[in-house]
Design a protein that fits this description.
By secondary structure, the chain is α+β, with helices and mostly antiparallel strands. The protein is built from 28 helices and 21 strands. The two termini are 81 Å apart. 27% of the residues are buried.
Length: 712
Amino acid sequence: MTIRFRFSKSDMITTAGVAMRPVEITGSGGIFERVGQPGITETFSHDELAALMRRPDTSYYPAYFDLAAQKARQGQPVQQINELPPKIRRLALWRKAVCDAFLTLSAAGDINRTHDGFARGRAKLSEEVQRLLGETPETRRSAKPGTDIVTRQLPGSRTLFQWVRRYEKAGFSALVLIPATHRSGNKSPRWCPRAEALMNQVIETYADTQRPTKTQAIKENVALFKAENQRRVDAGAEALVIPSAASIRRRLNMADPFYVYAKRYGAAAAASRFTLFGSGPDVQYPLERVEMDENRLDVISLLTLSGIWDHLPRERQERFESGRRWLYIAIDCATKCVVSMRLAETPNSDDAIRALRDIFEDKTPIAKAAGCESTWHHHGGIGTLVTDMGSAFVSDDFQGTVASLGVTAHLPPAGLPWLRGHIESFFRTLGHQLMPLLAGRTFFDTVQRGDYPSEQLACLCDDDLITILLTYIVDIYHNQPHGSLKGETPNAAWARLVAEHGTAPVPDGLTLRKAFGRPLSRKLRGDGVMFCGLTYSCDALREAFLHSPTRTVEIRADLRDIGWIAVKVGATWYPAIANQPGFDGISYDQLREGMRAIRHKYRKDALIDAPTVLRAIERISEANRRAFALRELTPFHVTDADVERHQAALHYPIRSDAERLGHISPSVDPLADGIQISPRKESTAPSQPDVPDDPHANRRERRNRWRFNDDN
């Protein structure tokens, strides 16, 4: 139901600092004219007026332009009775009750505005005042015997008549009955201008980089007065009155605190101390704003991935290098969920980029590898990425990657950590909740650390450290009530907001490979390009091999999925699929481990076919797969330099010609295919394994197109 308002032309409404008065009110709404700007009007419907009255920047002043209201406001310290201190407010309300009681009795003829009439009706006036205030014996709250009951003495007739006249002229507003004690006191200057100037010097004396105490500043100010008086006496002038130490201290306490702190400690320290804090940006959707930062862990650990620490002798343990790892963290501001985490040796752009890459991936397999019970499924497209001005985040590589993804980058100025309050708060939570549980912690500072032997107690390897961090974040932090979420857990907040708004889609595979892949060059071949023993081809590569004078192309690969890569032909990027089927979703670590297992079993110079490699990958133990997943979050992950260095170990191409060309039909029985090893040339050496009979041996021998190196 639409509510209809009634306004008087003497009313006033202010909204967003604009004052308006009603000109005309109709059934559909009202026309308002701006105060001080005749002819400029605005029209509001009654629904819009109702919404306007609920806004925090809207104020309504009934009868604002009436003469009585103006008299009531004139010279008053407040605009409403409730703004007064309780003691003065009770006095003003008692005076109002006295005036109301007098007017009521006057209308009934029990009292009049003469001294004799007031004296005759004084008793009835006292009873009426008590009734209006609820202080009669019937309405008064029962008290224990002996309790003091305070009653106010009625004013004299002259004073009462003055109150009533002011009360009537102000339109029966209690504001005119407020005691004028705020205007009492000696307002004349106590000190001459020269004394005022000397007294103000105490502020400059105290606001000094040497940081004197207030007592020292006051003594120095008194000395200034004495020196000035001595000069005046010598000149035959009148001496100044020296203020007391208490007066000088009061003047010092009236100084601008920001100015004093900036002069004593510097402008940057003052800006940090007197920062105006807020609730931060208003975010509604998951991953609408992601804050990312690096922090050095408050724990000394062993800088190794080994998990055999407990089995080593003490002299071997002492040789292990220990130190503090850096931690990259990305957190979603809307749900407070951690969407990325990675250990690093030092702050660097490569690890920052890898941490950014994890935001777009479901990290549940990594959490399961650490033994977590909850899933780490939080991922999606990013709206705004907020980082500090660290060298890793302002580097060309990181900023280029962010720009390639179409993500808005926000880099607040250095030295203002509250502009990234969510991630800073998480690091503080990590330091208070998790670090006290770890041996070898370094505490927040050397004072808190005391004599704690952090180096001697260091026993956590990188795999132990990443497992502990994953367990805390995935199983504990995501499932405990969060204060800024009003007691809701981050996991629950993620589920609720995703159900309401969804998440932005992650970039496509080609965009991810172009953004996060490092440029590698490969030579054009008849079957495309080779990377890690696999060959990749597409129509653009075949066309370039036939007609392009440029015989090298740029490629970018995702080491988590080597089933296809991105290749740049001319100025355009194309997806190139592996010629050997079955490698979709296979990681670089799994391929390298499978090749290592095959070469360990068979002779080194063998040509290996794709089914053999795939069967070897399937035989990789679950423990190794978990180790690969955890190692990806540590400084021991596969780097671009490792990929290039390991090309020599993977220079044997993985053959799949027979199956790809249809000479061998794939079998569902892995034992039926056997393990086929193709030697370079026939040899009868007893150390070589027996080669199974080839059912296609009578066919014409095909010339081998495969090269024995990977462009090296």
